[in-house]
Structure prediction request, 239 residues.
Amino acid sequence: MDDSDLFAATHRQPTANRPLLGLTVLVVEDSRYACEAMRLLCLRSGARIRRADCLKSARRHLQIYRPSVIFVDLGLPDGSGVSLIEELASATPRVPVILGMSGDDFAESAAIAAGADGFLAKPVTSLAVFQNAVLSRLPEDRRAFGPRAVEDEVICPDPIAYRDDMAHAADVLDDGAEGSMLDYVAQFLGGVARSADDNVLAQAAAALARGRARGGPVADEAAHISGLIRDRLQQRRAI
Prediction:
């Protein structure tokens, strides 16, 4: 099924207030906090959203339908989003708009080299940035006609989604994460914490990443992160 043609019906034509009406957006993202932000951005813009939390789930989605737009986080639990971008960029028919996402400095060049049409630095919370990233890469006949007021609205995801991310990280650590899974935990928590302005956790994730890069023992760093996660799960609201 090709969801990129859903706006063919008149009532699905984009408007100035809902410029992405009729589009289906697939978000490949393991963070529920980041996905909640994307859900709100799509809702404000008129787009439908579907979510995949890993490469395997994304490929399963893509076997069933072709979205109009796909956002791919580069750090996923079962591999790099770069590999998925490469597959999408060379596929026929091609997803009309492929955008990479990450909070890592190196990621933009990797996403573009893999074939992405553009890149968004996380956190993605600006409505104007989100809409422009999609609209600037759509064919002109798929954009709303006439002038469009660009709203400088900033999305604030539900803190409960942040708690969900903490629970996910706790599950990974409780399963005895080591090696590449510790790298994943450091990357995942670093991105989520920066998005939520949780500087303490972001610094702890960075310390774990540095320890892993040095190749030495990281038991202390991992234990510290586990304690921070427990603190956040015990709070009634996420930081």
